[in-house]
Amino acid sequence: MSNMTHEDTGRGTILSYSLGFLTSVELTLGAYLLVAHHAFSSGRLIFAIIGLAIAQLLVQLVFFLHLGRESKPRWNLVVFSFALTVVLILVIGSLWIMNHLDYSHMTPAQTDTSIIKDEGINP
Amino acid sequence: MVFAELLGRLNASALHHGGVEMVGIASMGLAGLAAFGYLTYKRRWKWLYREWLTSVDPKKIGVMYIVVAALMGLRGVTDAAMLRAQQATSVGASHGFLSSDHFQQIFSAHGTIMIFFLAMGLMFGLINLIVPLQIGARDVAFPFLNATSFWLFTAGMMLLNTSLAIGDFSAAGWLAYPPLSELAYSPGVGVDYWIWALQIAGIGSLLAGINFLVTILRLRRPGMSLMKMPLFCWSVLGTMTLVIFAFPILTVTLTLLALDRTLGMHFFTSGAGGNPMMYVNLIWAWGHPEVYILILPAFGVFSEVVSTFSQKKLFGYKSMVWAIWAIVLLSFLVWLHHFFTMGAGADVNAFFGVMTMVIAVPTGVKVFNWLFTMYRGRIRFTTPMMWFLGFVVTFTVGGMAGVLMAVPPADFQLHNSLFLVAHFHTMIIGGVVFGYFAGLVYWFPKIFGFKLNERLGTYAFWCWLVGFLTAFVPLYILGLMGATRRLDHYDASMGWQGLFIVAGVGVAIILAGIGFQVLQIIVSIRQRHKNMDTSGDPWNGRTLEWATSSPAAPYNFATMPAVTTRDAFWTIKHDKNPPKPHYTDIEMPSNTAVPIFIAAFAFLTGFSIVWHIYWLALVGLLSFVTLIIVRTTSDGNEYVIPAAQVREIEESRGRS
Amino acid sequence: MSQTEAIEKDSTSIFGFWVYLMTDVVLFASLFATFAVLRNNTYGGPPGRELFSLPYVLTETLLLLTSSFTCGLAMLAARRGDKRTVLVLFGITFLLGVAFLGMELTEFHHLAAEGNSWRRSGFLSSFFTLVGTHGLHITVGLLWMGVMMVRIVRAGLGRATLRRLTMLSLFWHFLDIIWIFIFTIVYLLGAT
What we know:
The complex is a heterotrimer. Chain A is mostly helical. Chain A has helices spanning 14-36, 42-63, 75-104, 108-119. In chain A, helix 1 (14-36) runs antiparallel to helix 2 (42-63). The longest helix of chain A is centred in the last third of the chain and has 30 residues, at 75-104. By secondary structure, chain B is mainly α. The longest helix of chain B is centred in the N-terminal third of the chain and has 35 residues, at 100-134. Chains A and C meet through helix 1, helix 2 and helix 3 of A and helix 1, helix 3 and helix 6 of C.
């Protein structure tokens, strides 16, 4: 049905907002401390802080933006899912494409550096 | 002089133009004067202002979109004729009649105008006119925003046309690739005009996308579930989804280029860490969805037209819906096929090549479904049906040319050749233009209350079809022979001139087709009393727009229709016990001039930035923002049509 | 217009605003993609790790996060019709937002004064544009908040005002979410 009979984003209580806030603070401090103390190696660190960011995204989507808590039809969630899909395609796609393009477009000097560094070959 | 400083880089040299340009400026100027003169002489300014310019009725806004689009289309096709004439004559010793720089401005303007102002304008025009009626609504979700979208579109159009008279237009192609479009290689105002005209029009499109997405999702009649909605509305829903997710990419990309040019940044410059290839990547991440934005509503039109004129319900409704959404999703996964040759390598090219081939499948599903709808139908070969048949022939062949180029090794030969040019013109003319022409003729009686002259419509169609083939088949051949695009001169030894001349003849035939269309409108207006649509349902249609009078009342439906099935009007029409009408007061949004001013300030801001008149740009921007704040904090912008007046309107039209 | 019709119309408006926010998500995604592609294009200049102070940015983050919280509490008060609490809470939100913006402008000024402006390199152009666009959105939000607070003082918490406050709060929460990613990708990842 295309009708909704009450506001679909007017949810939340002091408890839920406080929970969302405190969790977000923890996730923020967590990521900060991991980087400040260089807790893991680069690769793992990147994963960890992105993971924490995604966790905080979910916390804020649910507790502040009340996503998924609306009555059906859940158009907010549908449109958000679409947006997320486009974002992932755009960001990952662009990084993949540009990375390959930059590889093909290296100057001779850059090529030498890349051969030594990435492929372990010494010309 | 202080005064000169106040004008940024604007000075008298902006008004210096060559002979050919002067002819263009003079003709547009004269046309404008003629229109002004006519309105003054007939004392119709108040009427124009009250009935049209300040209207928030999508039925009025739709007509205005189409008028602007048609005028810009005339300019675009004039550009095309000039390009063809140049290429047919600029061989060997002769260099035609256009300088290189002028030629480049013309093809840049041609592409920009045709895509952003003709195609998008016709599209939003038809959407405004038909969607609210088809879903059984009185209006769109956000009428004020809708008017603002139209006026922003017009402001963008004005800015582009201003470049003809004051300064120059871009010579960097319809997509303005850097480094050419950067300050170092295009220091003049042309690229800036291009950026700001599109930025303003683009925001109009984005807002319209939001508006119609919400309208379709939330304003349908209670009985009209999504799977009972007409296919045209489904195609618009898919299109609006594309608009809302693709246009922000355009907004960003144009902004980044503007920042490079105006604030000395280095996103796409050749040095200082810029990456011009990122522009190509981003602009096509928008650009590919854009071409599907243009074609999907045309597909929707065909679904309506084929069903009506085969006198049969559409074959394969569910698969048609599935196909629309497959196209929507896939159109975000193919954009790299526009730059296979930029050097991303085999794996990247292979992925996008495969996705490009896959996207042809749902389109094929649609074509087959239309043909299956026709099978065992009782076909009426009206003008809209002719446009559809012309589409089937041309679009299918042109689409196959596209699938050919989806193979990266083949594309390495054909990229930026005339083969490519022929392919995309086949898609846009054979698909988009033929589709919107079909829609315009089909829905003309609903909008204006009388049918168009069939005979002239048929002549127009045949001129367009023959003209199109004559103009573009040579280009496919030339492309395979190695001719690249955007050539303003070539050696006689290439042996291309003959084909270019044939292509030129093709354009002349298309112009004849346009002549027939203009004649058709004039003659139809003259003969309108013979062709009045008194029933509101001149074609024996199946969808709700045919349930209203022609033209529809401002409120669309006096009594909201009860929807229970797909092809809702067909069911209502054949209902043995129609419900009695009952009339209530109807609340309607008031006319307003505010959108015009918002757009005017946007124009001022754009123009000022182009000419580096930064103080004026600030004034324009602040006015724009202030007006929006004032409007969004105001209430009470509605008026009521009392029930008695509704009854009067309904009964006077012979419909109770 | 009946009560049901009015509620539905408000619901439609709020959904429309949500759709606009989704377009803003894609807008920021384009800016993030550009930043990611140009992240190493420093043109011989210092990388992010040498330009950004993590404790400084952490402070900004906590300011904005707290403002998102107070905004949420303000909305609870608004639905209760508690005009005074709404004004106090939005006032705090506003001040926290101004503090955030002030810190950001100071950071920008500092960088530009040292010669690391948006004209220096592709990396810096994309840094200033991504973070600056967020800052511009914050500015619009603050302006909107100011206008709403004046309106509440003058006309109380009517239906239209409540609808607009709902949209403002969605906007403000959305901006904090975008900031999570700026904090993570620009500043934290830049420092690793």
